[in-house]
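Quick one - inputs below.
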Amino acid sequence: MEPNASSYSSRSFVEIAMEVHKVVPPPHISTIHKLKTRLKETFFPDDPLRQFKGQPLAKKWLLGAQYVFPILKWGPSYNLTLFKSDIISGLTIASLAIPQGISYAKLANLPPIVGLYSSFVPPLVYAVLGSSRDLAVGPVSIASLILGSMLREQVSPTKDPVLFLQLAFSSTFFAGLFQASLGFLRLGFIIDFLSKATLIGFMAGAAIIVSLQQLKSLLGITHFTKKMGLVPVMSSVFHNTKEWSWQTILMGFCFLVFLLLTRHVSLRKPRLFWVSAGAPLASVILSTLLVFAFKAQHQGISVIGKLEEGLNPPSWNMLQFHGSYLGLVIKTGLVTGIISLTEGIAVGRTFAALKNYQVDGNKEMIAIGLMNIVGSSTSCYVTTGAFSRSAVNHNAGAKTAVSNIIMAMTVMVTLLFLMPLFQYTPNVVLGAIIVTAVVGLIDLPAAYQIWKIDKYDFIVMLCAFLGVIFISVEEGLAIAVGLCIFKVLLQITRPKTVMLGNMPGTIIYRNLHHYKEAVKIPGFLILSIEAPINFANTTYLNNRISRWIEDYKEEEEEEEEPKKHSGLRFVILDLSAVSAIDTSGVSFVKDLRKALEMKGLEASETEKHHFKYSFLFLVNPIGEVMEKLQRADETCDFMRPDFLFLTVGEAVAFLMSTVKGQLSNHV
Amino acid sequence: MEPNASSYSSRSFVEIAMEVHKVVPPPHISTIHKLKTRLKETFFPDDPLRQFKGQPLAKKWLLGAQYVFPILKWGPSYNLTLFKSDIISGLTIASLAIPQGISYAKLANLPPIVGLYSSFVPPLVYAVLGSSRDLAVGPVSIASLILGSMLREQVSPTKDPVLFLQLAFSSTFFAGLFQASLGFLRLGFIIDFLSKATLIGFMAGAAIIVSLQQLKSLLGITHFTKKMGLVPVMSSVFHNTKEWSWQTILMGFCFLVFLLLTRHVSLRKPRLFWVSAGAPLASVILSTLLVFAFKAQHQGISVIGKLEEGLNPPSWNMLQFHGSYLGLVIKTGLVTGIISLTEGIAVGRTFAALKNYQVDGNKEMIAIGLMNIVGSSTSCYVTTGAFSRSAVNHNAGAKTAVSNIIMAMTVMVTLLFLMPLFQYTPNVVLGAIIVTAVVGLIDLPAAYQIWKIDKYDFIVMLCAFLGVIFISVEEGLAIAVGLCIFKVLLQITRPKTVMLGNMPGTIIYRNLHHYKEAVKIPGFLILSIEAPINFANTTYLNNRISRWIEDYKEEEEEEEEPKKHSGLRFVILDLSAVSAIDTSGVSFVKDLRKALEMKGLEASETEKHHFKYSFLFLVNPIGEVMEKLQRADETCDFMRPDFLFLTVGEAVAFLMSTVKGQLSNHV
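Output:
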């Protein structure tokens, strides 16, 4: 029923203003029901069982199967048009996947062929289980970096290569297990705690670290530091200047410039996506030919060397579930799992928003987790949806996850037949490819935007960045997450309180400081608390309200014309913005009321006699707050109609009229 | 200026309802000014420098000295009347302090005389520096328990008594350092994170643990477990039944009953406080006489044995700042420091509220910290304001901190002359005294109150209690604090969203579910978000609002009479309860607006053409939120007058009138 304007106009404003609504407690809900609702909101906010409502049983089975294996949903409607688009995009990302796979595996201190293995099996698993149409799956730079660095702290990849490989596969297994568990237990909201600012700072820092590591191959240095931080790397670079090889530097520089140019071209004109997509593979081919032609491997340019051939060997016998390295493996799995999950989910959501379809976060986690679990048994290491590769996939016109299948097939062909071709590929070109790939992770416009909107977020971002560069990747991330949570807790522990005033000519009350036309009402102190009231802030609120009262009294004294009946008589607390209250909060209200009584606000004896219960009044408590006040009522006597009001206007009008009535009785 | 009723009555309600106020950004404040305000609110919420304003320089020096040494404030006005009250209360708490000091020192595995040392120097320090008039300072049960148990994990008090004592003093030093630092750095709000529910559960658990430890002396067992948990203690008790000594049990039982009876009497009639205050000392004297008379120490009752005499020897040479135990000492100091600080501050605040004077939390922390630092150099271990002793002090009529001085003097006399009297005091009586003292820490009525008001708080309390009993004291506390913070984060990550409806006959909009008389407005979906919008909940809010929209459409379909122009046309978000927003929140608003456009709400072509900017409207953003929206305006175009409204009523009225106007143009 629309609010009927005519029914209002017949009543005078005074009548409407004087109307006092009863503030009622919300309808009673049993604790069990509330618990069920809370669990549902926490773990199933997207209500995945919606679609099952009111369907016949056979359809429910079908919907269930389609829910678990999304390929059953889009598979049957697949046609040639889609296939054409997918072939193009599949081949495009394959041309990226091959050089990147080899490069990233070296970044993780693993044999280069493991990178190609990881571009074969995981995309196939994802195509069956995943929900995103644009996600291109494979090894990624940051997870490779973290895996390599964390394992290298305890095991040397050069002295114990077999053990290192075993630990890498075991870490992948645990990463997958952790990711799938998060998805099963619907705990996906945990990755929400990595705020966008944190991620921007973190990824930029990681990009710098990865680039610094490439200085080894770009300069041709043999003796390089094991550490990752900026300072050790730079000192290693400048202490070993005699190891710099001019041939390597020349080749690296040329190819780096070439790759960065092609990237720039594709950024300017997205239609020329194939330029930057094909450039890495072209560089690999070109540089291999150069090295082969000039026999440059004997002239100071290091090459990959002979690689194995063939498809992924099974590796479940390599997984280690016991022994002294179990702690290391679990910790590495956890960190790489969380980072790669965050990237994969963020990429999936970004493209889903662009193309306006839904991606179920928890389901994606299960898909990525299973992908890693299966991969760990087929010689693959940690993989996820990579941002740059998915962007190319998207720009190349991918329509479904079949592009991942096409890519996997191409990689399979490479593994079976084309491996000897990489024998003469120089490491320097792989370094240049990695640097070009991670440069895109440094997002300066976004950082500037954050600086403009929220300085604290900017500081968090800077701390993540500096922590990663100077301390370590894991600790930089932990510091950033800690700062985010601390910010949230700080906002709670120091809530804002504002004084409200009346907007003249209306019954609206707003923040005096914000709206200049609002005016104070003499004798009334109207405060609004803008946060939940809980154990973390009741002490502060007590202090703050005492200060408000003292400030009010001071200002009254400073006024030149002492008015009749002036002085602070009533304190009204607007609880519209108080979203929750706990037992400490209820005590706080009770103690505040008692303290005001004892302070003896400057009411006349008449008023004191009339308002002997309270000089404190509450306005508009929301449902949950109301319930707690009601339950405390037996000891605190909160539910009186002259204590709780629906709006500030009603409270002021009621109190003023009652006081006038009393005074007139006594004149 | 009071809202003038007459100026309203002359205007019709329609005129007033149609008035649309411009939502303005708050006045600009520089970042520096905002940072200063935020720092001030965070660290100086009680504005301690208030009193210094506008005073001549000499007075400022005096006020400053009085601020640092409160004794200079109340000292000069001290008189005989106050002294009379303080003598009585001082002697009363001394009679408690002597037996408790000996008992608690044994609880901490320290020589009994250290407990008396700790009742001599610390109260003197507190009398000079402290602000509370009722706090009675000395060793406390829980801190003694924690100190003893944490140090005993690594060092045996029986085999290495000198080392144990050194570590205890060093821990006391670090505890005091930590406490004073918290006070200096104004980080006092950290202890606010120990919510009342947590503390009740924790103290009850600690009381049980302490009582279980006393079973050793109450039953006369020699071989007792080193562990603290319920299970090890019980198995130790029932495995060593042949060590139970009937004489000890008999004596222990009698005195325990006597002490509990006196405690009960004093609880019923607070005027008989001296009964329970004097009972421990009376028990000590009586039992010493009994043992001496019957030569009971040869009959199975263990006694304290010969104690040293004399005042506190200096112990700064015993403090250890290096070596392998440094980590243990720092950790123990931290935990005991936090716990004793919490108790001391809570006690001080409780009695200050009762007697209506102010206690500066941070200043108290400095006082307690310095007390412990000085104590560690004078053979005292961790002390603080004890709850039971302060209650006795208060009931006995203490007027100032001089009662602490009187107590210290009495203890001094005891140390100098009366120590030989304790030679025959049986340990079982000390155990009975401890049990009686900690029984008061179990607060069942408060626990029941928590159960009634907030079930989650009750679970936190229960976890603290069970954690302390079954795992360990430190870990039980850590679990409870973690649960508190998790609850706060969970509330933020799953904020409440409610649908608002119009209260008929007014322009007030309230929660439909809470106020049964509120009605929906067809074509409008009015939501209120009841929490800050930040990185932790934007994903959830996106899902939730999509669900609200789908639910709305489903309900519309189910209605029997399809109305003309029905269907969801506008989404109004009421931001009154959104206390803060960050960069993720700003992105959320932007993306929501775009998503609504793409969803194509069921507006007619006319409406779509008119509202081509947005189907989303925001109401009443608070100052800080408004600022962030404004700063994002260049890219997002938020500051349009037809996007932001001051109240829900204004938004609805504006939109309805504009639509009607448009439609009438096209009819």
